[in-house]
Design brief:
2 domains; alpha/beta; about 15% strand; 4-stranded antiparallel sheet; Aspartate Aminotransferase, domain 2; 7-stranded mixed sheet; globular; Aspartate Aminotransferase, domain 1; binds pyridoxal-5'-phosphate
């Protein structure tokens, strides 16, 4: 089908008009890295400042709003996110911190939960912050990293995990959708293998959430973290979310013992006792203002439904690959992402020598993907804000730029 027919048949097409325009952009290929702002987000931030912040002042922390008093937002917004995107029941998710900080807190909690287990499993192609955080924890806690060497065009497999876990394993950390290839790991199988070895599984969902369907409760996932500024449209640097399976609330203890994660914080008494449930993951004052845009992102996702979002995501990447195969592969471009739609997330990565310079030329012409070493251009296709015609336009410019750079 051509782009016009695909757009005409797209049940989510009308969502595109709900985003603010970016006048100099021909095609946005980076909604997987920073989602575009919905129109209502601008209105919502202004209304929040005027009505909530100015109107309620400090009373806002405790007096209920639609989302509860601000003090309750980490759990309330977390529950909404869990229902819309994580396949998780209430009381297991909070919105707080950055992904990096939450990753540290939950990975440390896992490593500390059994002093006899001193190995952490991670793959060489995991996102840099994940690798660096674990290196720090290993140094701090006298643990060893067991590295899995992954194929950069695919990603981590259950067989690879099964080969390295054992009685010394404390934690397996993996990304559900690989940030470069877009590979979807088999989270259910890897979690089961991790449990069979007596260890805990922590999933980084940064490139999955709001794009692919997740079933954290059904998969038995122990711990998870992820970004809200990618497919969820929370805006630059919006806070992360953390998930802790209910069965672990008593045994897993995160290391940043702040007053906001304490039982009865306003008692201000001596000694730290963690709050009941997942609230104990919170450390300091919740980033309320930074959560406001996320409410619009969640609203849209609730309305569209994650199944429809995923269906469009698969159609978008398949359409892009069709054009890439016909127009770009003959120019020496290589696809370093899974062909199987069941194993492919919401973005694809293309590789060719000299792509770093091609990126500059693309940006100059209003086509905005991003670049990942080595020689990779990442094409992210955010389902609610991207049309098939936009994909076609962007890849046509890319073809032009490659042809020109070669001559
Ligand atoms: C984007 C991303 C992050 C980002 O972490 P921050 O703390 O928000 O900078 C972490 N992990 C993965 C897998 C990502 O894709």
């Amino acid at each position: 089908m051509n782009a016009e027919d695909l757009d005409a048949a797209d049940p989510l097409a009308h969502f595109r008009d709900r985003f603010l325009p970016s006048p100099d952009v021909v095609t946005y290929f980076d909604g997987n890295s920073l989602g575009r702002p919905p129109i209502v987000t601008a209105e919502r931030i202004e209304a929040f400042v005027r009505e909530e912040w100015a109107g309620r002042l400090i009373r806002g922390w405790t007096e209920p709003t639609d989302q509860g008093g601000w003090m309750e937002w980490p759990g309330q917004v977390g529950d909404r996110l869990a229902a819309a995107a994580l396949g998780a029941g209430p009381g297991q998710t909070v919105v707080a911190d950055s992904t990096t900080v939450l990753l540290y807190k939950l990975a440390r909690a896992a490593v500390d939960s059994d002093p006899d287990r001193r190995e952490i499993v991670v793959d060489t192609d995991n996102f840099p912050t994940d690798r660096y955080v674990l290196e720090g924890i290993a140094a701090e806690r006298g643990a060893t990293l067991r590295w899995i060497e992954t194929d950069p065009a695919t990603g981590i497999t259950p067989e690879q995990v099964a080969a390295v876990v054992g009685p010394a394993t404390a934690l397996v950390l993996a990304s559900h959708v690989a940030y470069r290839s877009g590979w979807i790991a088999d989270a259910e199988a890897i979690t089961r293998i991790t449990h069979d070895a007596g260890a805990l599984a922590l999933w980084d969902l940064s490139h999955s959430v709001g794009s692919v369907e997740l079933e954290l409760d059904a998969w038995g996932v122990d711990l998870a973290v992820g970004c809200t500024y990618k497919y969820l449209g929370g805006g630059p640097g919006s806070p992360a979310f953390g998930y802790v399976r209910r069965g672990l609330h008593e045994s897993v203890r995160q290391p940043i013992q702040g007053w906001m994660g304490r039982r009865d914080p306003f008692e201000m008494g001596p000694g730290y006792t963690p709050a009941a449930g997942v609230r104990g993951v919170v450390s300091g004052t919740p980033p309320i203002l930074a959560m406001v845009p996320l409410l619009s992102g969640l609203e849209m996702l609730e309305e569209a439904g994650i199944a429809a979002v995923r269906a469009k995501s698969v159609a978008l990447t398949a359409f892009a690959l069709e054009i890439v195969d016909a127009e770009l592969v003959p120019l020496g471009v290589e696809v370093v992402s899974p062909r199987d739609p069941a194993r492919r997330g919401g973005h694809i990565t293309l590789r060719r020598n000299g792509f770093r310079h091609v990126l500059d030329a693309l940006w100059a012409r209003g086509v905005i993907p991003d670049y990942r070493e080595p020689d990779g251009i990442r094409i992210g296709l955010s389902p609610l804000s991207t049309s098939f015609a936009e994909v076609e336009r962007g890849l046509a410019v890319m073809r032009d730029v490659i042809v020109q750079s070669a001559s």
